Every structure is written in structure tokens, then in C-alpha cells.
Amino acid sequence: MLYEHIKGGLRLAAIDGQAASLKLSVGQNLADARAMVPGLTVREIDRPWLAAIFADFADWHSNASPLVAVMDDMTAFGDLVLDITGVAHLFGGEAPMLRTLLTRLRALGYTVAGAIASTIGAAWAVSHFARSQVVPPDQTAAVLDPLSVAALRLNPQQAAGLTQMGLKQIGQLPGRDRKALQARFGVSLLQRLDQAYGRAEERLTPRLPLAERHAERRFVEPIGLMDDVLMCAHDLAIQLGLRLEGEGLGAQAFHLFLYRVDHQVMTMSVNSGRPTRDPAHIARLFANRSERLQGDYDAGFGIDMIRLAASSVTQLDALQLGAFVAQDGAEDLDRLYDRVSSRLGPLAVVRSKFVNTHIPERAVKLEPVIARTADDPHAAPDPTRLRPLRLLPAPEPITVFAQVPDGPPNSMVWRRVSYKFVKASGPERLATEWWRAGRQLQLLGSDNHQKGDDVTAAQEALSEQSPAYREGQYSRDYYIAEDSSGRRFWLFRQGLFGYASQLDWYMQGFFP
Amino acid sequence: MTSLARMDRLAALRATIADIERRPALAEAAATPQSGADGFILPTPGLVQEVFTDERRHAGATLGFALAQARGLLSAERPAVVYLQLQAEAQEMGLPYGPGLVSLGFDPAALVLIRPANIVELLWAAEEAIACRAVAAVLADVAGQPKALNFTASRRLSLRAASSGASAFFLRYGAWREASAAQLRWHIAPALSGPLSFDARASGETRWQARLEKGAITNTHNQEWLLEWTENGFEIIDTGSASPAQPLAQPALSRPVPADLADRHPQTA
User: Fold this and answer.
1) How many inter-chain contacts (A to B, CB under 8 Å) are there?
2) In principle, which of A393, A498, B169, B181 could form an S-S bond with B66, CB 3.0–4.6 Å?
3) Which residue has the higher pLDDT, B151 or A295?
4) Does the interface predicted TM-score (ipTM) exceed 0.85?
């Protein structure tokens, strides 16, 4: 028995069959219920947790059919809906399939009701208001007609209104004037009615990404070892690869679903930079991906089904190797990046993508290689500007001594070591981007704000005094400074002398 | 009859054993570094080279030296250079910067950065990259002295490099040298840049002081060079007899090293 806080009181939120037989009901005050049944066992309901568990539970049912949805408009955590088009024969027909699904849940101690029908509405009505059964398409009307109107997934007001008017059974509705019904009960009643009888289409939103192609294998005896899983993934990749080859297709994303016997699904996904169907490559990616799982892999009591699904399927024509293919190594490289990304994560394998800005740290964005985007032709760096070979991701503040405040640096202290410069060239003046405002403009000072409380920072950003563009305030003068042993650094002074209230020096990079 | 068949089998087995014995245990087509007309190394594929420098603040010099060599290895069949650096070391050592590569004359599109979380993954990624036949060179930037990067690991990588033809450069820092299977070991220090004709106070072309600590380059007996980077590659600066190549200052050791006594017995006893 579960209770929750509703409107300042503790009310029953869910009850089991035994409690229902004691005349307790959902929504009842907990104190009243305790008075009626002194030895009541109650727990507080944890809705997010239950919802998460139910979602897992729903995912697991994708081992019966790939199209699984949770309809959450009527009951607390939703109703599980499976689209079994074309899969029933795997269970020996519709009736054995229903029996299998229901029995295996009952064996786990759940109270289940289910139905197979040609429409979602009819299946819902039958599973909630009749015994579990398979409704053949031609008998949908015959089965639906005697059921209560509440079976049409109506809200309580609609159901009560219909009952008051003497329309207690669904069968009484189709003959009525539709316009009158719509005027009284809204368009939703007609829609539900049409959906139940199959006159209007109803769609379900699948929980898992719809796999365009998949291969699967069931095990009589559950398996647990990762090596076995990977071996099976290789076999499935061969099957899937053959099928894709037959259709002239390749895929860029592969997902491995591991169905555990205790109703959990584990998912591993790998991506490939270019469409592929090579089983060895796919299996290798999964092997690398599994290395990254480390302790997260938990087979529980075993895995009894594995499905390999391919998505982002695109056309991939058969290629004659050797004759007309340019050996530019691009394919080898893409495979290398796929492999490394699958083990280290896609964000660990990056390339420099140039951004059209003159602020040095913003001019390059590190972009995952397997998700490369087109280059911006205007962003290519100017080869006449001398830039350091290594850039510090965040400039480091330094102490600099210069002969005159706006002159080149003479010496500096960086990381507690002092350097004396023998050569210095500059300045190269880079102004801020005047079309930006606030923190975007400030670049460096914004770190202090993030450490302080965000509220004041936000207020500051809104207020008039927020750093709007002010000439010279955040301009930078860059110098290339070389010390007596030949180390060359890229330093800059933030703020122009005479404009800015404070001149700060930063170290940003090293030259070779 | 049976004895004849047995004789045949024995002979066949003997031949097999002889075959195995004739082949050295770890055969590798060892690439030999060749020198060019100027006496400096030519780009040689399939080599593992260590590029040492004394301090981490010379990181720019080592990267420049390795990239300069890697540039010569790029070709149409091998269009990529892979750079590896631990994620945690990016702020201390700095990340290779695209516009800076352009300044050096290196195509930034050819450089791919791999940023593993630990040294084991770095070595794994290095091996994968070396094995790829489209990779020209692998640059591994290792700031510390990790235990995982021992002789076994470097031997493994050098065998892999010899068989695939990709070159590997290990950028290392500090004075400590552990055993490694690298064919060449360089000691690099930045040198005062060349003069700029119209501005005496500005830095000119990049210069390195390079010393070959281990390995040899055929056709040259030189072990120490002062190199300048030009558009066409390395150029050797003749320091002349007036200023003899001064030995690099002995760097501070990064860990305590026992003094070598003349008589070793007292130490061990």
C-alpha cells in the first residue's frame, strides 16, 4: 500500500488486491484507512523511481517486438503498448505470444492483463475491461460493443455524463448523432471512438530509437561473460552486414541491446565516421567500447537475448577495390578514428576547426573527428600573422616589468620563475569584438564571476553598468618575447594604457 | 618402408627447425636513418625517436622539432599526423594551435589530436595509430615519467613502427633517461633566434640546439647541430670555429641519483 501527500493530507495512492477487498480505495485519507484497518502496512510513493523502473521494464519488452511505447495519458505510470506487426509468428502465433508475455510476468509476481487487438483503443479497452484475450480483426466491434464507455479512455466527466444519459455501453454510441455528441462531450470522445473501431489512425511513440535494420539472437541458457557477448555481436554483425550488403546500404550508428533475464536492458552504441557494413570493423568498435565500460558492465543473472541494430542507414554501393579507388588513405584514417573514439570517447579524438574570429583562443574549436562539419572558408588563419605553436587553453596571469606602461616587456615572472627578455617584438593590437556584450566581451574576468554567486553576476549582466563595449577596456597588445636562452613566449597586456583602469599581463602561448 | 617414411618426416622436421633457427627471434626491417647532403637526418619512415628536453617550458621547441621532421614524412598515401597528449596536461603544456601550425608551415588539417585520460590509453592509441597505414607520424607528448612507458612498451611500439612504416616521436621532458627501444634519442634546447634584418629587437627564425644522444645517422659523424627552421626545412647554422659548440649546460636532475663511486663494492656491500 502506498500513500502520498496531496493537498496537505496523506492519501492512499496505490493499493493491492487484498486492500481493495477490505473496502479501501485510492484517494482515501490515510488516517481513515488506518482507522478502518489497524494493521495497515504503508510506504510513501516515490513516483520518479517508479516511473524509471516502469520505463526500464518497458524497454526490456522490446525483446518481444522492436516497437515499444508507453502510453501515459490514462494510468499512473502508463500502459505498455507493443506493435507486434510481423513478429507474432516468432512466438507461434498471437495467442501463444500473449500467453508467453503474460505468463512470464505473472511468474515474477506481477498482476498483468493484456490483449491483442487490431487497434490500440480496442486493445486498451479489452485489457482493462475484459479478460485477457486475442481479438480477431473482424470481431473488434462485437467485443467492444458490450463494454462500458469508460473503456474508451475517456476522462471521468465524459464517462459520468454518458452514463447519466443512459449511454452505458460502447455499442450504443456509433448510432448516435455525431454532431450532438461532439457538442456535448467534445471532439475527444469521437476521436477515441473512431480510434477504437479503427476508423481513425492512432500512432505510438516508440521509446527506443527505431532501428531500421537489426539482427538478434536468443539464448536457451543465459550468457554472462563480456567475451561471449562480443563474440555474439560479431556473429550478428556478419548477419546484419550480409543483409545490408544485399540492399546496398551502410550504416553509421550501431546499437547493441543486451536483454537481461531480470528485465533490464543494457545498451552500447558505437558510431562510425563513414557508412560501413564491415562486420570485423563493427565488432572491433564494440570490443573497444566494452573496454570503456569497465565496472559498469553487469550481466546480472545473465543475458538471454542480444540484438544488434543499425541506424543512420544510408546508401553504400558495392565498390571494386584496387582498380579505380584512389589510395589516399582516407578510409584507413576514418577507421582508425572510429576505433580510437569507440574506446576513448568521441570527444578525445579531435581536430582543429577554425572559427571566423580574431580572438586567438576562440579562433580554433576542437571538433570530434567522427562528426566533422564543413570548414568555413572565411575562417582560415592568416599565414602572415605569426602565431605560437602551443596555446594555453586558458591564459595565465603573469607579473611583467616594462620600461614604460605601454611598452614591450622587459622581464616577467611566470609560474614562480623569472625570465629576462633580450628581444621583444610587438605590439599586435587585438581589440575586443564590439558586437558582443557582457561576459562574452570580457573573456578573462568572467572566471571571477563564476566563482562568486551567480545572482550578482546575473544582475550585473542586466544592469546598465555591465561591461558594454568601451574602447580600450579589454583590448589586448600581444608581444613575442624571447629570453636569453631562446625561449619565445606569446604575452599580452589586457587594457590600453590611458583607457583601462587596470593593465593585466597574461601568458598565452609558446613558440617553437 | 616404414623406416623410409619416418626418415622423410624426420628430414622435414629438421628442415623446419633449421628454418626457425636461421631466423632471428625478433626480426624487423630496421630502418636506418640517412643523412642528407647537409649532414642532417632526412625524414625516415618507420623510426621511433625520442625528443628530450630539460624542462617542460621548452615544450614549444620539442613540438616544433618533431613537427618539422614529421612534415617531411607526409605524402599522398600517408596524409595524417597524430598528436597524443593526456587530457590533464593540456593547460600546463599547451595544446597545438592551428594558426601556429600555419606559421610553422605545417598543414593544420593534417594534424589530429587524441586526448586520452591516462597513459595506458595513450600507449594503446599510439599503437593503433602507428599500425594504421595512412598515418605518417605519431607524436606522443608525455610530460611525466610514467611507469607504463617502459622498455617493453617502447620495444613494442618500435616493432610496430618498423612493420607499418609510420614514424613515432616521443616528446619527453627532464634529465632522466630510462631504457627504451627508440632508435634515436635527441636532446633539444631552444637557441637564440636568428637575426631579423630590419628589426634587431625582434625574434627571427626559430633555432634549435640539437644533440644526438643515442643512435647514429649514416654518412655523418656529427652529433651536434645548431638548426634553423626555414621555409624549405632545416638549415644547419655553422657556428664556426670562433665559437666552438658549447656543451649544453648540465641540467638539474629530476630525481635523486646515487653518486657513482670509483669502487662500487662499498655501495653494494
Assistant:
1) 197
2) B169
3) B151
4) no
